[in-house]
Automatic annotation (TrEMBL):
Belongs to the sodium:solute symporter (SSF) (TC 2.A.21) family. The lineage of its organism: Bacteria, Pseudomonadati, Pseudomonadota, Gammaproteobacteria, Alteromonadales. Keywords: Amino-acid transport, Cell inner membrane, Cell membrane, Ion transport, Membrane, Sodium, Sodium transport, Symport, Transmembrane, Transmembrane helix, Transport. Catalyzes the sodium-dependent uptake of extracellular L-proline. It is found in: Cell inner membrane; Cell membrane. It comes from the Bacteria. It comes from Shewanella algidipiscicola. This is Sodium/proline symporter. It catalyses: L-proline(in) + Na(+)(in) = L-proline(out) + Na(+)(out). The chain crosses the membrane at residues 6-24, 75-92, 126-147, 159-180, 187-208, 228-248, 276-295, 315-337, 369-386, 392-413, 420-442, 454-475. Pfam families: SSF. InterPro entries: Na/Glc_symporter_sf, Na/Pro_symporter, Na/solute_symporter, Sodium:Solute_Symporter.
């Protein structure tokens, strides 16, 4: 590896740590600042922060790798994600921004659920927090796997060494600056990812004379476009598109809507966020497609298709640019890990420690506990990530489905259904998470395979949770007058701010 590549990466690491130090001085004196940046985040930072924390290492490694292996069927996953993100901005973002503030200034999703239903026992808050910690630990491990593979492939170092470098930098700036550091670094990282996912496929395409020439080489390994689109089974199509359902329940994404300055700013964030997402997803798919053609033309053998972006970065660019492109992968990985660590830490401190300890902790103590939470989740996730055979896309898909099914239906019902009851909320969370876990791990098919080999676990999980919430609400006691009053107040505030 050329020394200029190391220089580029060093500059990137220093920049991220500097942002963490800046945020440490600006926003971490109280727990609201540490968790939500004081609800003063701009629409530009909100949009790119949501996008960068959403797309993670799978955008530059998992998605191109899926296109490389499967072909054009991967497009359906991209379409599902784009539709889900758009609907999230339209029907979740405005109401969640207002409702979480009206409902006792809730700082976390579990706290929002507790205050939405005026739950004095805090059972729903603790259950939701436990689910967040479990699935985010799994999700964080996916990012660390990506970091380990990056350093192993690009720098020829041990996988474990790369894993711990990734972990060390992201934990450092998350510990220092909290939400503001995570959001600002996500903004920078989102810009880097945007440029990289345009640059790599455009430069790689120059290795072919025409588009037809490139596609002819690609068709040596994958079915033609028309054939691939027509031959997709109905179950496979539904499974791919259903990725979009996950957006409604992803705490690390929707928490951005809670922190934005105002409801009016959400329209600006939507335009920026959807434009960014469209360009980067097209770039990721193009990287995988051109990668197939390039591998066939030049007899390139890849032991791991998820490293095609890394391979292009090394062989097609000047060492200084290679460093920038490798930093883009690190940006994608770190932006998501930092968001997940912060949300997990928030749940551990605000929704478990504060509730279980039942004592009036100081703001300084809560921020300190939040930092301990970041470190604790990071350690467990790193132990899970030691198995380098894990597929990045597979780990992400499992955690994505877990959150989408456990929280997605409840978020929608909570924001749009006044008569929703406390019992229905708990039943929805538990049934959604349990269905996903059963679908992934129970070897119920004849060959010992799990049901996830037939249909993506998001679909049954989301359906079961929605049905349980609806049916339980019908047969349970009406919500208390405080719940109805808060719901109506949120509606009035939203109408005024719009």
């Amino acid at each position: 590896m050329h020394y200029l590549t190391y220089v580029s990466l060093a500059i990137y690491f220093i920049a991220m740590l500097s942002i963490g130090l800046f945020a440490y001085k600006r926003s971490t004196s109280d727990i609201s600042g540490y968790i939500l940046g004081g609800r003063k985040v701009s629409p530009q930072v909100t949009a790119l922060s949501a996008g960068a924390s959403d797309m993670s290492g799978w955008m530059l490694m998992g998605l191109p790798g899926a296109m490389f292996l499967v072909g054009f069927e991967t497009i359906y996953i991209a379409l599902g994600l784009l539709l889900g993100a758009l609907v999230n901005y339209l029907i979740v973002a405005p109401k969640l921004r207002v409702y979480t503030e009206v409902a006792g200034d809730a700082l976390t999703i579990p706290e929002f659920f507790a205050k939405r239903f005026h739950d004095p026992s805090s059972n729903i808050r603790i259950i939701a927090a436990i689910i967040i910690v479990i699935f985010f630990t799994l999700y964080t491990s996916a990012g660390l796997v990506a970091g380990g593979k990056l350093f192993e492939s690009a720098f020829d170092v041990q996988y474990e060494f790369g894993l711990f470098i990734t972990l060390g930098v992201v934990v450092a700036y998350t510990l220092l600056g909290g939400f503001l550091a995570v959001s600002l670094t996500d903004f920078v990282q989102g810009c880097i990812m945007f440029v990289a996912l345009i640059l790599v496929p455009v430069v790689a395409y120059q290795e072919f004379t025409t588009a037809d020439n490139m596609m002819n080489f690609a068709y040596e390994s994958i079915p033609h476009f028309g054939e691939a689109m027509q031959n997709v089974s109905l179950l496979a199509l539904i499974s791919s598109l259903s990725w979009g359902l996950g957006y409604f329940g992803q705490p690390h994404i929707i928490v951005r809507f809670m922190a934005i300055r105002s409801v009016a700013d959400i329209k600006v964030a939507k335009r920026i966020g959807m434009s960014w997402m469209t360009v980067t997803i097209i770039g990721a798919l193009a990287t995988g497609l051109i990668g197939i053609a390039y591998a066939n033309k030049f007899q390139l053998k890849l032991t791991d298709p998820e490293t095609i972006f890394i391979v292009f970065s090394e062989i097609l660019f000047h060492p200084m640019i290679s460093g920038f492109l490798l930093a883009a992968i690190l940006a994608a990985i770190m932006s998501t890990i930092s968001s997940q660590l912060l949300v997990s830490s928030s749940s551990l401190t605000e929704d478990i420690y504060r509730v279980v300890s039942k004592k009036e902790a100081t703001e300084t103590e809560m921020v300190k506990m939040g930092r301990f939470g970041v470190a604790g989740v990071a350690i467990v996730a790193s132990l899970l990530a030691m198995d380098r055979s894990n597929s990045i896309l597979s780990l992400v898909s499992n955690a994505w489905a877990g959150f989408g099914a456990a929280f997605g239906p409840l978020i929608l019902f909570s924001l749009h259904k006044q008569s929703l009851t406390y019992k229905a909320a708990i039943a929805g969370i538990v049934s959604g998470a349990a269905t996903v876990l059963f679908w992934i791990y129970a070897p119920v098919l004849a060959d010992g395979e799990a049901l996830s080999s037939v249909m993506y676990e998001m679909i049954p999980g989301f359906i079961v949770s929605s049905l349980v919430i609806w049916i339980t609400s019908i047969f349970s006691k009406d919500p208390c007058h405080k719940t109805v009053k808060t719901f109506n107040k949120a509606g009035r505030v939203l109408a005024e701010e719009r």
